[in-house]
Amino acid sequence: MHAVFYSLLPACGVAVYFFGPSALTVLLIATLGCLATEAVCQRLMGQPVTIVDGSAAITGVLLALNLPPTSPWWLTLLGSVIAIAIGKQVYGGLGSNPFNPALVARVVLLISFPVQMTTWSVPAPLGTGLDLVTTATPLGEWKNAVMLTGKMPVDMQGSMSEYFFGNMAGSIGEISALALLLGAAYLFYKRILTWHIPVAFIGTVVLLSGLFWLVNPGKYPDPVFHLLTGGLILGAFFMATDMVTSPVSVKGMLLFGTGCGLLTVLIRLFGGYPEGVSFAILLMNAATPLIDRYTRPKTFGALSQRGTQ
Amino acid sequence: MKLKTFTGGIHPPDNKQWSSHKAIENCPLPAEFIVPLAQHIGAPSVACVEVGQHVAKGQEIGSAKGFVSVPVHAPTSGEIVAVESRPHPWGTALPAVVIKPDGEDRWSAELQPADPSDLSVDDMVEKVRQAGVVGMGGAAFPAHVKMSPPPEKKIRTLIFNGVECEPYLTADHRMMLEEPERILRGVALLQYVFGAERVVIGVEANKPDVIDLLEKECAGTPVEIMALQVKYPQGAEKQLIAAVTGGEVPSGGLPMDIGVAVHNVATAAAVTDAVIHGRPLIERICTVTGPAIREPKNLRIRIGTPLSHLVDVCGGLVEEPGKIILGGPMMGFTQLGFDVPSTRGTSGLLLLRSEDVAAQPEGPCIRCARCVQACPIHLLPATIAAYARRDLLAETEEYCAMDCIECGSCSYVCPAAIPLVQAIRYGKAAILAKKRNS
Ligand code: SF4
Ligand code: SF4
Fold first, then answer.
1. Looking at the DSSP assignment, which residues form a beta bridge with residue B262?
2. What is the tens place of the pLDDT at every residue in B249-289?
3. Does A308 touch chain B (CB under 8 A)?
4. Nearest by CB to B403, which of A53, A300, A307?
5. Which CATH superfamily is domain B112-275 in?
6. Domain edges within chain B
7. Which residues of B touch A300 (CB under 8 A)?
8. Which residue owns the Cα nearest ligand 2 atom 7?
9. Per-residue pLDDT tens over the stretch B131-187
10. Within an 8 Å CB–CB cutoff, is residue A293 touching chain B?
11. 3-class SS of residue B301
12. What does CATH list as the number for B19-111+280-355?
């Protein structure tokens, strides 16, 4: 568990660099909020308090990474309570929750407080003395333009390299692809992550968005844009790979990742929201038991797979 | 070249360095032998001697009962002092013949060597049966039964198991190194009995000395030496067959269903003794090892030697052991004390300290799927164990619990320390019990 924590540090660092103390506040409130909620729930249910296992803290950090840097304190705190109480403990705690707790909280907040959850700001790197100024995320910018004019915006604010290093508007953890990839590489090295879900997820997004882009580059953004903006990398490496809520077999993981990718592109291109990663992962979380059932590995020596029902 | 293996499996520390360099020593006779009458799969044998009677070494003291059964023999010459129930490695007290050695260690005059070229296949199988030879890898299935497959099951490939993938154990390693002749004569006899076209000795690549030696010894013969990737449970029958032939033994079936028979290398040596020297199976090589024993050794022990004697011969205990295991740490049988005797299946006596076995508290399953990746049978151990623990036997069986070979790989890798194999073993037993009752 601690390795997952360390792997998120670069992303947190970049967020604090670009968004300053407000990002740090969100991170702290979310983490402490999750730890406290877990302790209170377990106390109330008369169970041993297991906050030292690190899982609640990780949920907190992941939640913070999925929130806008300007989130008010009560929004963050509410999110932590939802994540742990409704996303995890009502199902019986660690290992029993069907949905990724941090994403449950994010989506509940997004639907209940759309204004606060979609108020994004321009990064103001530490030391520049700038204040955080409200703006749209690149995906939001594109979606607005398409909704209004049916075309790509003429001049997007950012460049691909800015997106890659994290100099764009977005939630705390999704802005720097580089920092996220560093963390993911560490998890691969520690063999906590396997490649199946992230590769299937990102691969599907790149392929499918590439198809649309080839057909109509005037309307649809190119795959690199899809890859570097929004929560794709954060979602594919750190949210979709949550072991508790994803399938156990290799085949199942590939199917799960592909489904996430498919839904993400469909929501981004045709849905009401500019970003679809969270919804896609939650929908696939719901499909996980079904996927597990139909992708049972073939038992050694079985002539044909029995009993998948 | 990429070494052959199976899919799944784990890499536990092999801990063979304690004893792998130690030459086999003959274990001195204990003050008393306790020879269990049940030492094999199948019907236990029945005592055919009386208290007070004097027996010669190798004389039959328990006769076989039925086809799937083998006789039991006196490990030395001496006096029968008791025929009674004694603590047995299987966990309960079972009938045993207790012998007080007379110190002469005199063979029975009836046991005569034979020239194998005078013997028919049936003669050989009968000699193996009379000698009480069983599978020495741990399963202890009577060898003569395996040597008599039904005529429609032609054995084309004969595999000898020199893998010894259990951590700590080095008995087969030392035997292959020091007594290749004894093993290879048995290999040739068994090839003749089965009429197999292909003969392979599988050895894990962590024993290069054995591989070099056997390759030299087998040059010019049809026997193939195959180095296999080091991975547990490479020595499990189905996994060994998969590595050597690429074939899968059908679920619920036997190796002979795909034209294969597997014997342990130590079984081949016992066949040599039985057929050529006319000698019954009364001794075997056993590794006494682990951090709690003063001087780890590879010992040639007589069947029926009490474990306490083995401990004495190896310099005694360093400290009170936290766990006493007959066999290896993965699939061996945990013992409560040293009063039980060794049997034909005793490949090792492992003594671990309390600190080696300190159990981490069990946590909830986090669905990390490490058990799924480790399972050599491609099961979902977490799912089966969860069903078995709730006594949902239909679901337990539905998820192929009966195919589990109880290798323990799943429990070994589980970060939540869930006793998966224990739960599955319980489920299997409950399913069998239910079938028997209905
Ligand atoms: S389920 Fe059975 S066969 Fe699979 S790893 Fe566990 S013990 Fe071994
Ligand atoms: S290894 Fe343990 S924690 Fe992981 S899925 Fe299997 S049972 Fe669950």
1. B159
2. 999 999 999 999 999 999 999 999 999 999 999 999 999 99
3. no
4. A300
5. NADH-ubiquinone oxidoreductase 51kDa subunit (3.40.50.11540)
6. 19-111+280-355, 112-275, 370-437
7. 238, 242, 248, 251, 376-378, 403
8. B382
9. 999 999 877 899 999 999 998 999 999 999 999 999 999 999 999 999 999 999 999
10. no
11. strand
12. 3.10.20.600
